[in-house]
Design a protein that fits this description.
The protein is built from 13 helices and 18 strands. It is α/β, with parallel strands linked by helices. Bound molecules: iron/sulfur cluster. Iron/sulfur cluster binds next to helix 6. The site of iron/sulfur cluster has 10 residues, from helix 6.
Length: 436
C-alpha cells in the first residue's frame, strides 16, 4: 500500500515538472513517505531524519538548503511534534492530508519553504502512477480501518474506513486499460468492508463493486484482477460467489488468519474463530477448486501457550497454505496489546516462529510439486536476473515461473511447468495466449 502511495506522490511531482535529483545530497526537495506499522520502520526514519538534519545544516552554510517533507503513517501518528524533534522538517503530511501535497508544491514553486498544512485537509484518493510499459497497477478502493486488532497501529494512523466512489474506480480502470495495463490489484486495508453510499444510486458493497469491476474490465485489455487485504470476518458468501462467477478474478486469495487458537484470536480482537475460518476456506475451495490460499501468521502474542501454538500448526495442516508471511509479535506502543500481561520471551518467540516457518516450507513444497506437469497461463513480468535468455512470469495462483524465451513483457503466455527449483517453477513450450 505504501509503495502505491509513494507512486502517487511521484506522479504529483512529475505532473508539475519536478524531476529526480541525482542523489539526496543535491535535491531541492526530500520527501520521506513513512510507515508506522513496525517500531523498527519508525526507528529507521528517525535515523534518516537525523542525517537530513545534519545535511541541511551543512548545505545552509554554503547555499540555500532544501525542503524536507515527512509523509505517511508516521507523520500522521507523530504530527507536528516531529518538527520539534527535527527542526529541519518543513512539512508533516499525514495520510489524511495527502490531498494538500499540490498546495505545498505550489508554495515551494513560488519560493516559499516552510509552513503548516490547512487544518481542513481531507483524505482523497489519488490516481495510479504508471511508468512507461507498466502492465500491472494497484487501484486503491478504500482507506483506513475500523477493526482495531489489538496489536495493530493502522487504525490510529490511517483513521476510519473511507470507501472510494465506484465511478472514480471505474474511471481509473478505464484509463489503465487504455494505457495497456493487463492486471490490477484492488487495494485497501480491509477491502471486504468496502461500502459506498450514494444518495441516488444507493449503497454499493464489496460484492457489488466486484460485479462492476468484472463488467468494466471486459471492455479493457485487463485480464487479471486481484484484491487485498481480505479480513476473514468480512469476506462474505456473495463476494465469493461473484469471484467464482468471473474468470477475471485470479484464483488466489490472501486471507490473513494470524493464529489458530481461539483464545489468541480473541485477545487479538480478530472477531472470528478458527472454526469460522476453516468453514470459509471450505466455502472458497468449493466455489473455486484449485484456488491457492496465502496468509499472515503472527506467533508469540502475549499469553500464547504451547497448546495455542499447536492449534496454529494444526490449522496450517488443515488448510495447507500456498505461502505465508510469518512473523513474531513485537509490542507496538499505542496499541491495546502493548499493556497485555504474559509477554513471551524472545528465544521462545523465535523458536515458535521457526517451527511455523518449517511447516509452511514443507506445505509450499508439497503443493508446488503437485503442480509440476500442468499447463498454465502466466503473465510475463520481466527478464530473469540470473539468465538474460530467461523470462520470469507469474501464474494467477501467485506462483513464480522461469521460462526460456524473449517474448514481450506484460503479455500472457501458456507454459508447461516442467520442474521446480526452490519455490520457482521451470517451464517450457512458451506460446502466446490468443489475442496477445
Ligand atoms: S484489519 Fe486489523 S491488522 Fe489489518 S489493518 Fe485493520 S487493525 Fe490492522
Amino acid at each position: 500500500m505504501n509503495s502505491a502511495e509513494s507512486a502517487a506522490l511521484v506522479l504529483a511531482l512529475r505532473e508539475r515538472g519536478w524531476t529526480a535529483a541525482e542523489n539526496g545530497e543535491s535535491a531541492d526537495l526530500v520527501l520521506l513517505n513513512t510507515c508506522a506499522v513496525r517500531q523498527t520502520a519508525e526507528q529507521r526514519v528517525m535515523g534518516r531524519l537525523a542525517q537530513y538534519q545534519a545535511l541541511k545544516k551543512k548545505r545552509r552554510s554554503v547555499e540555500q538548503g532544501f525542503t524536507l517533507i515527512v509523509a505517511g503513517c508516521m507523520a500522521e501518528r507523530l504530527g507536528e511534534g516531529l518538527k520539534e524533534t527535527f527542526d529541519a522538517v518543513d512539512y508533516v503530511m499525514g495520510t489524511a492530508a495527502r490531498s494538500v501535497f499540490p498546495v505545498i508544491l505550489e508554495t515551494l514553486e513560488k519560493g516559499g519553504t516552510k509552513g503548516s498544512l490547512p487544518l481542513t485537509a481531507q483524505f482523497s484518493f489519488s490516481a495510479s502512477h504508471l511508468e512507461e510499459g507498466q502492465f500491472h497497477s494497484f487501484v486503491p478502493i478504500m482507506h483506513g480501518c475500523n477493526n482495531y486488532c489489538s496489536y495493530c497501529i493502522v487504525p490510529y494512523v490511517r483513521g476510519r474506513e473511507l470507501s472510494r466512489s465506484p465511478a472514480s474506480i471505474m474511471e481509473e480502470i478505464r484509463l489503465l486499460g487504455e494505457r495497456g495495463v493487463r492486471a490490477i490489484t484492488l487495494l485497501g486495508q480491509n477491502v471486504n468492508s468496502y461500502r459506498f453510499e450514494d444518495g441516488e444510486r444507493g449503497m454499493t458493497d464489496f460484492p457489488a463493486l466486484l460485479e462492476l469491476v468484472a463488467r468494466e474490465t471486459e471492455k479493457t485489455p485487463i485480464r487479471w484482477v486481484r484484491f487485498l487485504s481480505s479480513h476473514p470476518k468480512d469476506l462474505s458468501s456473495p463476494a465469493i460467489r461473484v469471484m467464482a462467477a468471473h474468470r477475471v478474478f485470479c484464483r488466489h486469495l490472501h486471507l490473513c488468519v494470524q493464529h489458530g487458537s481461539n483464545a489468541v484470536l480473541a485477545a487479538m480482537n480478530r472477531r472470528y474463530t478458527r472454526e469460522r475460518y476453516l468453514e470459509l476456506v471450505d466455502e472458497i475451495r468449493e466455489a473455486m477448486p484449485g484456488i491457492s490460499l496465502s496468509t499472515d501468521i503472527l506467533v508469540g502474542f502475549p499469553g500464547e501457550t504451547e497448546a495455542d501454538l499447536e492449534r496454529t500448526l494444526d490449522l496450517m495442516e488443515r488448510v495447507k497454505f500456498h505461502y505465508a508471511y510469518m512473523y513474531h509479535y513485537n509490542p507496538r506502543e499505542g496499541t491495546a496489546a502493548y499493556d497485555l500481561p504474559g509477554r513471551i520471551g524472545e528465544d521462545v518467540k523465535r523458536e515458535r516462529l521457526a517451527r511455523v516457518i518449517a511447516l509452511q516450507k514443507k506445505h509450499t513444497q508439497e503443493l508446488l510439486k503437485q503442480r509440476v506437469g500442468s499447463r498454465e497461463t502466466i503473465l510475463i513480468e520481466g527478464i530473469s536476473r540470473k539468465n538474460a535468455d530467461e523470462l520470469i512470469g507469474r501464474t494467477e495462483r501467485d506462483e513464480m515461473v522461469a521460462v526460456p524465451g524473449c517474448l514481450a513483457i506484460g503479455r500472457f503466455a501458456q507454459v508447461s511447468l516442467s520442474s521446480l527449483c526452490g519455490n520457482t517453477f521451470r517451464a517450457k513450450e512458451l506460446t502466446l495466449c490468443p489475442g496477445d
